[in-house]
Automatic annotation (TrEMBL):
Residues 1-24 form the signal peptide. Belongs to the peptidase M1 family. Coiled coil: none annotated. It is an enzyme of class 3 (hydrolase). Keywords: Aminopeptidase, Hydrolase, Metal-binding, Metalloprotease, Protease, Signal, Zinc. Residues 50-219 form the Aminopeptidase N-like N-terminal domain. The lineage of its organism: Bacteria, Bacillati, Actinomycetota, Actinomycetes, Kitasatosporales. This is Aminopeptidase N. It holds the Pfam family Peptidase_M1_N. GO terms for molecular function: alanyl aminopeptidase activity; metallopeptidase activity; zinc ion binding. Residues 310-455 form the Peptidase M1 membrane alanine aminopeptidase domain.
Amino acid sequence: MHRRIIAPGALAATVLLLAIPASAAPHSPGAPGIGDPYYPDHGNGGYDVSHYDLRLKYQPATDELEGTATLVARATQDLSSFNLDFLLDVSEVRVNGTKASFRTSGEQELEITPKTPPAEGAPLTVVVRYRGVPSSKRAHGFTSWHRTPDGGVAANEPEAAAWWFPGNDHPLDKATYDVSVLVPDGTQAISNGTLQSRGSRLGWTRWNWRSDKPQATYLATLAVGKFDITTGTTEGGIPVLNAYSKDLGAHAGAARASIERTGEIADWLAGYFGPYPYNALGGYVPNTSTGYALETQTRPFYSPRQFANGSNVSVVVHELAHQWYGDDVSLKRWKDIWINEGFARYAQWLWSEHEGEGTAQELADYVYASHPADDPFWTVKPGDPGPDNQFDIAVYDRGALAVQALRNKIGNEAFFEILKGWPAKYAHGNASVADFQRYAEEVSGEPLAALFDTWLFQPSKPGLPAARSAAVAKAAKGVSQPRSWKRIAATNGVHGH
């Protein structure tokens, strides 16, 4: 029998190695991007935020914003450091109550190194104190902060948060929000969700807002200025709060005539998409020079220019449809934008039917016939348009045409079951175009890969066989312009970010 002799030093080293727990393996930095191929620097890895508490003070005269942001999160890996997306000047960061070191890098990265590195699954409470002038900050060549004559507004897509609070700036990391804003008396602060309270002291008024359902960072909004505020409720009992800048001039009447129908339109959309997914509703129109609108959750942002030619109910339909398609169910990656825009545009087509100004089929026929095969319109793939074409008109119009093609393929019963079932299946979560295809196949019982490929992913006009099977093969000379078309086209700048 042979006996193996182990030297005492070697034995001690072996025992020491066995005593080290696996969790003591080296911690590593969280990724500086969440992994979106369109926007590699957007969002971050290594943690998941569940709640933002933002306590702010804003001075409209100087555009100075001071804030304390508290993020309630959880580590998703053993973290040596992690990033937040942010642009203003930071004075202090604390992680789990202890001061952390920090530095800035890249376009909008705030790199934080905790004194005690958190383990995977550990809770994180991150407190960031900051101040700055949002309108002075630019990232990637632009700003998402709109300076107005009486204040400022944060509203843009695909990013706006970094100009007013630090966060994980990608729709994959949705969270609830408390937003408390101190502004001079006589000035209003508008944000998402329900107004919990407001009170004045020593010449300043604090507005406290709460969003109690998960919300993507780009859907969080802040508007400070002098507004007229109206309130009411929908027939379903949802409170409605709308706000209009006091200096909208000639656009004021048309804006009110459109947005005051918000409750009516939300109730109507619920008939197609299922129950309204939030406990607050409304819209606001600040005095900005930009031309787009945005589906900021529960309270869409509208620019005055949307009402330059009179009332524009169609744009209200579009932004409210997003509360289901884009807000309640958010995209997984920005290439999945068709689920947001194709269905919001299709809601406008359904409204056209409702108003007797052209059916969805007639609008689909018109879109197909209006663009010859060599039109660049057909080179944009709504199912994966690329970052430069993310808000191209084809994503909207060709995207809605794809929705009509699906309706014609599977029939009304399955189609309208999908319209309602999709927001219920993925409520307050994220999903992709591939997820939608699988769900549509599950509900309809039909294979749909060829249809989705033809209408969403081919950079060319669907040929006559495919168009005839989708019942949109009429020639241009045989198609008249639906009466609703000009109103719908008036919203084409809706996301010209």
